[in-house]
Amino acid sequence: MNERPRNLLLADDDADLRFALRRILERAGFVVSEAENGDQALQALEGATFDLLITDLIMPTREGLETIQACRRLHPALPIVAISGGGRIKPDDYLALAKRLGAQRTLAKPFSGEELILAAQDALAEAR
Question: CATH assignment of 7-127?
Fold first, then answer.
């Protein structure tokens, strides 16, 4: 039996990276919607149903950590994958905090397409 395509929301302020990640995820069978920042991500989450959120942690207007907190309040069961290249502190510190706030999986940039797909699949499987 064929499983329906999984809808995911990808939030990252880097348009080039977002495009590349979208292509990787679509080739893996995901249906991908995009957001440039946390505010756009939360607006999208209010207007549509997603199976997974993948969010960068360092973004303008609303960072990923704030986005994860708001998402947990609005959609407590939605699986989240947090990605980060760091900022003023190492990415591992941001990612550890994202995990404590509710992200099922975390990835430090740079990561491979295979690692991204595996993280998405693992977060979805864990949520079932």
Answer: 3.40.50.2300
